[in-house]
Amino acid sequence: MKKPSLFFENEMIKILNDDVISTKLVENQSIDLIVTSPPYNVDIQYNSHKDDLTYSEYLEFSHQWMSRCYEWLKDDGRFCLNVPLDKNKGGQQSVGADVTTIAKQIGFQYHSTIIWNEGNISRRTAWGSWMSASAPFVIAPVELIIVLYKKQWKKISGSKESDTTKEEFMQWTNGVWTFNGESKKKNWASCPISVRTSEKMYKNV
């Protein structure tokens, strides 16, 4: 039996169990902030997502779901997208650059990119020509958090009140964040997408 699309709801939060591309449970121009990390297309065995698309199929999939996010955002809404810098499984691909280009084609405005330094080079699975300069792989233990917005960067909707401390502001506006990533062993069932409005938090689980 198919699980209900609306998993949970109260005055402050709504949790959806639905398809980001086809859901009708999120209103257009209702969201202030979307933070998401989509599947990386590196053949992880998700329950409901094919994670071994061709690269062109993956980029088309990215265009489809990001287009929905664009529709949901308010004009001063923001979109924070966590993707790999690049990948070598199945061939070298400039994932971060390509996804950023697609987002701008959709209509997103580029603001900045935060470098997430995971500090974990041990996860690499290929070295290219080991101990040889003939064809080595260059692998950076970082991911990207691409910060985009819809039409206007400055927030003009909502309460217009900020509770950010000086320490938080200094830390978060530093373009390099260093903390450990989550373990692959947890193998989340699907791509989590949290989208925040001034009144509610929507989460696709």
Summarize the structure in words.
- There is one protein chain.
- The chain has 205 residues and is of the alpha/beta class.
- The protein has a single domain (28-155, 165-204), classed as 3-Layer(aba) Sandwich (Rossmann fold), CATH 3.40.50.150.
- The protein has helices spanning 55-72, 95-106, 166-172, and strands spanning 6-9, 13-16, 31-36, 73-84, 109-117, 142-149, 176-178, 193-196, 201-204.
- A 9-stranded mixed sheet has the order 1-2-9-8-3-4-6-5-7.
- The longest helix is centred in the first third of the chain and has 18 residues, at 55-72.
- The radius of gyration is 18 Å and the shape is globular.
- Mean pLDDT is 82; it is low at 187-205.
